[in-house]
Amino acid sequence: MKITIEGKVIEAQEGASVLDTALKEGVYIPHICKHPDLEAIGGCRLCTVEIDGIGDPVPACKTKVEDGMVVHIHAPKADKVRKMAMELILATHPADCTGCPKYGKCELQSLYQYMGVGPERWRKKSRTVKTDDSNPLIQHLFTRCIRCGRCIRACRELRGIKVLDYQKTSEGVRVGIDGGVSLREAGCKFCGACIEVCPTGSIMDAFGMIKEDRSYIDNMVPCKAACPAHTDIPRYVRYIKEGDFAKATAVIRERVPFPDTLGCICNYVCEDNCKRNELGKPISVCKLKRAAAVRDDGAWKSKVKKSGPTGKKAAVVGGGPAGLSAAYYLAKKGHEVTIFEENEKAGGQCRYGIPAYRLPEEVLDKEIADILEMGVRLQTGRKIKEPKELLEQGYDAVLVSIGTHKGTILPLEGNQLPGVLVNADFLKMARLGTVKNLGERVMVLGGGNVAYDCARTAVRLGAKEVHIACLENTQQMTASEDEIHEGQEEGILLHAAHSFLRITGETKVEGVELQKVDKFYFDENRKAVIELVEGTKEIIPVDTVIFAVGQKPAGTQDMGLELINSAYIRVDGKTTQTSAEGIFAAGDVVTGTKSVIAAISEARRSAEAIDRYLGGDGDISEQLLEEETPSPYFGQCIGFADLERKKPELLEADIRKQSFAMVEQPFTEELAMCEAGRCLQCDQRLRLTRPKLWNEYEGEGK
Amino acid sequence: MKTLETDVIVVAAGLSGLAASIAAAENGAKVIAFEKSNTTGGAANMGMGPLGVGSPVQKNQMVSLTPGEAFRKHMYFTHYRVDARMVRDYYYKSGDTIEWLMDMGVEFVGVQRAFSAPEVTRAYSDGEFTWHVVKPEGGGMPGPRCATTMTKKMTEKALELGVKLLLETPVTKIIMEDGKAVGVLAKDKNGEEIEARAKAVIIATGGFGDNPHMIKEETGYEFGKTIFNFAIPGMKGEGIKMAWEAGAGHTECTMELMYQLPDNMNHFILDGAFRQPCLWVNRNGQRFMPEDQIANTTFTGNAITVQPGRVAYSIFDSKLLKKYKKKGPDIISHVHPHDLFDHFDEQWEKDLADGYECITQADTIEELAKKAGIDVKGLVQQVEEYNEMCENGYDELFEKDRNYMQPIEKGPFYCCRQHVGAYGSLGGVLINHKTEVMDKDAKVIPGLYCVGTDACNIFGDSYPFILSGNTMGFCLNSGRIAGENAAVFVEEM
Amino acid sequence: MSEYMIYNLVPTFSEAPVSLDLFLKEASQVIDALKSSKADKKYIVYPKQHKEMTQYLQQAGENEDIVYLPVETGGAFVFGNKTAVVRVIQGEKPLPTGVDHGLPVFSAEEFAAADTKTVVIGGNAKKKGTFTFAKTTTPRAILEQCSSVKEWKGMYFGYPMGRMVGAGQLDEELELTTDYIHIFDETDCVLDQLFKIANRYSKESCGRCVYGFEGVTQINMILSDLVQKKGKTEDIELLLDLCIVMETQALCDIGASAARTVLTALQNFREEIEEHVAKKNCRAAVCARYVTYHILADLCTGCTDCVDACEDDAILGKKKFVHVIDQDECVQCGACMEACEEGAIVKAGAVKPKTPKKPVPCG
Questions:
Q1: What CATH class is the domain A2-98?
Q2: pLDDT per residue over A93-133, tens digit each?
Q3: Do A97 and B339 touch (CB under 8 A)?
Q4: Which of A142, B224, B407, C62 is the least crowded, having the fewest Cβ atoms under 10 Å away?
């Protein structure tokens, strides 16, 4: 059907409102209580129009189109109704916009600018309501409320959470929570829809939640933003909640080729950025990833696209997570890729630096097999001294991703004695089963996760007494809480805030001398300052000392590439290309020891750059699952904010000490779904339509 | 990364940015304006109108002030410590700028002055009729925010002239090549980077009123402690920082002082109710200025900032309160509701119950002083002296207008602590009278202009309320000057 | 056949529980009729705190076919709006979503399809209480039944009618839809009454629409100023301007009814209301701010009783001196008049008695 608005003939959909029809066609009609995603109520009267044949002006949002309808926006009666409505709104809205954090992002302000009317002929009085910043994540500044009811409709009808509603008070009607309880008590799901639809500064993100240096999208979904590979966490967590683990895995796989591996050993920075931290504990994202990956049915494989052969050859030196990932994406782009791996198996640190009780061989083998299936060739036992050779051999591009496999030994008296080991060698030997003469008592020096890996490995290798000593106190230690706790269960003796003075012994290690640390911090020049407590020296008798104080790349000095800090390869920040044309580098060998997820993310960037270098378009993005629009309806759940973080089952300490069997079991389906149900689904807020303001319309109706 | 190319880039589309965009486009330049909020007009949306001297509106109202006189008055007020060439060019252009706006469809209800001073101080503090108050759409009385109609008309004009307006797209850096400004880096809504190239860049980001760190660094005030300024969101001072980074000279930054209550939006009635010429004292209990001047927010803000703790206390008694309730306040401001005292009790009791820290009520002066943190002896003595002077009908200390000599004698007594506020920041970037940015050695940086609040170094230490409408006036005219000069620069290149 | 049917007993005016009374009179017949109706679900919505209803429910016990839904209020205007009542059965607050009268929501009278309307009459009626009239009637027919205490001035037909009727409309036929009628006589000030009515609307307003909520707020603030002698001449026009738009643009009939009340009041009593602004006079000497108190010199004995009674220290004078009221200080509370045993203190409207400027010796 056709209708005429302001003299313009417009094709209209049966059943649509006059307002929606006009806006869709780019004809602006002011409005504020109508939000694109919410039912019209016709309360604000700003969209008032005149329609030929109808006496009184009507709200365009509540008027359905009819064939041949003639609509006037700027006509005397409609103008009068609209302007008076705006005046009335402004008469009780605080005049002092300058103190309002919504300034410059406010729909009312934009409308006010458009209409240009003032409330001066009316009685002016703002209805003050005390600002409520006692709730997590959401701030209520209801003095600025104009009662458009958008938040209420979003909360009750769109989301079905039913927390916000109109409240009668002695100072008039306002938005609030029944019974005046906190959002938490009322069963708020902190989805943020109310904030998103609020046209004024009445409901806002709590102070500090919006970081200036992040984009809007990143602020809304901070977990995804924090993940180095930007895996779409809310999307896959939602599938897990629905029990669809295969789909969840496909979502993860769109960004990383190691879902199961990461599910076991990721350092999950996403969880630190989870908005649920404001309510208590974050979503157990990492463990949910594993829950999905172990139940994968491989359906995603049918969606994987591989380009035809390009005739270009790429070599990858080092088959760790970075090298494997890059190889995978390059192979998908049609390049012929060969990985040269020094060890007898691929996997890098995942295989040789992480104990099997955290990441079993089978998991890694399976995911590497998936990568090789893409046509990647793997040559093991091949050490490449100079990557240049490979270019000479006819490879068009080389990626160096050899990681950091050399453990650091501190300059300490006695550090050359037999019985002194370093983390990288020790863990590798443990994997290979070649550790000998460990003795009964072991001390690990260092306070990170790797120190725990070494200590807990030593326990499993039969050491009777295992110590960890580190400079940091328990708050400063970088080892995760879980590691410290599980280590303690396994009987590891922690000497936090202790300095190691020397290793004692004449011909072999006999002990380590420790002294208590009073203060340990970095001064303004980033120099470590250690203040010791007098008279607290003690010698702990041990047979073996393992250094776990960091790792470095091995063999980079001879590669003929420009280095930083004498061991790390210097690359161009944008292209990841090294000082040599055609030779790229990625992963720990560039960044220093980071995380597997960071290495994968760097490898992706490198793969993009190498593809472009080889003449491709550099687009390695993939869609392994069609976008589905999740239901905006959340439903009610009293106590949602207090739902406890679920934990997967652990083997008993006594049992796990006996072997390298996986310590932690994957979530059961039921627990995984339960845990995923705690997700706030922050991304759903982005699916709400942002109303277009007058200055975004062109032409007619402005 | 998206790339764009144009003649002139305007960084932020507030009042000065809009003026610059329009002026450049009118003079034949292709213009892209980047704005980080979703509205144009910036802080000007809050205002009522700009200064103009020698405009048709003034002539209609038989205001005979000439640009030359205004220039002299301005320089007298600032003791010649500001750029006279800039000031001169600004005032001489300002009347024409009003006509320029009228040609865009902006209407003015007339010219006003900020204050009408009490008789005794008239010679020093009367405002000139320079404030062109914008007429709201469809008529009606003008009030706070009415200048938004002007920003709308200017936005429409800019779009009509083909200015490309990129909303929610903040600029992050000025691209400098061979000592010249050649473009900017920006970020769009979704965080995607944009590299835009141009022959000239005009910075107009409106100062750093919303950047506590920068306020501390540049002016020494601590936001939320020693100053409670308008912190219009987004006024982060990026423009100033980008200009400095590009090599611009650094001028002294000031805060455009006034006074107000912390969280004043939620205590607006009290904010107005205590802006009365009752008894004002400092923390020692001593009067510090003739209270008949407190309508002059600039003077009062300045006076408070030199008191101990940078606070002052305004006090009235039950009798005075009753009078205010019955006959209305002694002073009615532009911004507060006229019927303040009809709602006083309601707000007062609510705020007392909520524990609003600025207010105190007590039955005796001693108790009031104790509760409010004023020196007890000092206040008691001051009230005694003051009441005696009221009895005699003459203020021996400051010659306050005798109509306001009303004793403080009947409890309960009401007290409200007043703090230093500010409309925003002023200045930072060194420019010449053509608004070209200069380096620390006063050498022009080719292609770089800075206008409006970021470059407003012509007020000296205080907002020149005697020539009211000056903030917007400078924004509009400096913007216009920059736009015109940039267009010429582009053409010459 | 409709899915549901609601029998609505919640009054619009708590002081006029018409539907509830009618129900309790013949409950068993109503229940039978309800049962035999064809709706899938049947509800009776009633005020939770109503004693007789609670007693009735205790005696009658549960009824399988009918859901009894108690609501927390003793009465509210929103219950005159069917869209609002429907929300109660959805577990939501009774907020109107529009003006749909086609919904299967019935008051007792609507359910019985009666051609009479029962109302409660209050105010300065000689006979107050419950009356039944023909559905279509005239104000005169009503006035003949209840009559007024003193000289009749006007009558107000409450929500949803929202009509102020003056002498000129006594014979105009109207359809009676309200539960409550208020009678004014000469001792009432129309402005004062209108302000009280507006106050009621302001408490009843649901807040969902601009004209309904902000419109009523403005009416209230303007009337408040008029009552308190702070009105401006343009206020009357402003009220008309607002209410004409508001009557058609409020989301539901509560706002419309409020606007209509003001419009009909101005139509019938404009002169009396306007006098407050133009002549600073309240005809009925009701609005306190238009009244001044004076002490008549010839009757004052200088006893200081009034001085003691004045909390605002507004009375000057000492023993044996004629007391004088400081009009600047006086808040028109009337306490002095009550305290004076001599009857020397009088209330005055526009015409004020001559009194000394300062206390002078008595006699």
A1: alpha beta
A2: 988 787 788 988 999 999 999 998 889 899 988 888 888 99
A3: no
A4: C62
The architecture in CATH of the region A305-405+555-613 reads: 3-Layer(bba) Sandwich (3.50)
> What tokens were used for B334?
């532009």
Tell me which residue range forms the domain holding B409.
258-421
Could you say which DSSP state residue A155 is in? I
Q: Tell me: do B301 and B394 sit in the same domain.
A: yes
Distance from the A198 Cα atom to the nearest Cα atom in chain C, whole angstroms: 15
Task: Compare CB distances from A123 to C93, C218, C249 and report the shortest one's residue.
Answer: C218
- C-alpha A326: how far from its chain's center? 21
In degrees and rounded to multiples of 5, residue B419 shows phi and psi of -120, 160
Residues of B in contact with A118 (CB under 8 A): 136, 140-143, 145-146
Q: How many CB pairs under 8 A join B and C?
A: 9
Do the Cβ atoms of C249 and A45 come within 8 Å?
yes
Cα-trace Rg, chain B = 24
Give the DSSP H or E segment for B172.
strand B171-177
Q: Which amino acid is at A523?
A: D
CATH number at residue B143: 3.50.50.60
Token pair listed for A431: 């994997």
Would you say residue A589 has pLDDT above 90? yes
Q: What is the DSSP pairing of strand C180-185 with strand C4-8?
A: unpaired
Find chain C residues with C-beta within 8 A of B323's C-beta. 328
State how far residue B319 is from chain C, nearest Cα, in angstroms. 9
The beta-carbon neighbor of B145 closest among A95, A218, A693 is A95
Partners of residue A216 in chain B, C-beta under 8 Å:
189-191
**Mean pLDDT, residues C93-115:** 86
Q: How close are the terminal C-alpha atoms of chain A, in Å?
A: 24
The C-alpha atoms of residue B271 and residue B195 are separated, in whole angstroms, by 46
Interchain proximity C251–A43, CB inside 8 Å: yes
pLDDT > 60? residue A91: yes
Q: Quick check: ipTM above 0.90? A: no
Residue C250 burial (10 A CB sphere; 0-12, 13-18, 19+): buried
Query: Encoding tokens for residue C307?
Result: 């001085």
DSSP run (H or E) holding A245: helix A245-253
Question: How much is the pTM?
Answer: 0.88
Q: How many domains does chain B divide into?
A: 2
Domain A413-552 of CATH type 3.50.50.60:
yes
| Rounded CA Rg of chain A | 31
